[in-house]
Amino acid sequence: MGAEMAQRVGTQCVTTTQLPGLPAPKRGKVRDVYDLGETLLIIATDRLSAYDWVLSPGIAGKGKILNQLSNFWFEQLAGIVPNHILATEVDDFPSELAAHRDRLAGRSVLVRKARVVPFECVARGYLAGSGFREYVESQAVCGLPLPEGLLRASRLPSPIFTPATKAEEGHDENVSFEVMARGAGQELAERLRSLTLELYSRGAKLAAERGMILADTKFEFGHGEDGELMLIDEVLTPDSSRYWDVHGWTPGTEPVSFDKQFVRNWLDTTGWDKNSPPPELPPDVVEGTLSRYLEAFQRITGREPILD
After folding, report:
1. How far apart are CA 250 and CA 154, in angstroms?
2. Residue 72 in contact with residue 80, Cβ under 8 Å?
3. Are the folds of 3-115+260-301 and 118-248 the same?
4. What order of strands is seen across the sheet that includes strand 26-27?
5. Fold of 3-115+260-301
6. How confident is the model at residue 166 (pLDDT cuts 50, 70, 90)?
7. What pLDDT score does 167 carry?
8. For 222-232, how does the pLDDT look when each residue is reduced to its tens digit (9 = 90+)?
9. How far is 286 from 202, CA to CA, in rounded Å?
């Protein structure tokens, strides 16, 4: 990592957490979740995942950047749908967490518990990733037919809703709306489709004002103990979304991105089979990833993340 970049984010890379006095966390690919009884503590670590593998080394500062960006978006979208956030500042956390404030500051949130809807809610405004691969094979995405002649990174006639199953391990699987409706119920599926497209539209509008394209994103929802539907997990971060520079976007080419595509592109050059442990990220890829995440945060929020 370059000296200037290292100075900005500090040198500590937090890839795992274990908070004395608390039960062991449930570890996802990038977040550690502590069950506090009535609430959950979610810590965004500096782990980075791609192709369903956690990569090494971690990206120092990444967890703080994405946690704070997600909190920004939760605030922006609160008028559309409730969310699970209870507190974002360590001073507002329960007293039993006070001893861990230095570990938690900037990279953690206290949230309501939720019964998670077992589908990821994906909105696409542009053709990329698995959507583009499906289109090449069938001229459709998740059963939705699309016009002929679209290219990689083409803008779609209008944003589409393309749900996916949530996998504990391995790949999530794109499914049709009908499959989702059978699994979640017609009424809930329709509401989630409507909310997803509205949230995407709001996010894409703000991103466009910052000179960025929100190509696609995924949302997760859950029901609180009172049955209320709410937005959960993370929101509109470079880990859950594709962001492109509007000035570097040309259909048919790989756009200049501010997300994990930079890492995926490097991995694709290594000959890695995606079934065995992945190669270690070189310093220039680590620094390039962090710089993209930092720029995404700065451009979207108009401010600097708190990294110390």
Report:
1. 8
2. no
3. no
4. 26-27, 31-35, 39-44, 108-112, 85-87
5. Phosphorylase Kinase; domain 1 (3.30.200)
6. confident
7. 64
8. 999 999 999 99
9. 31
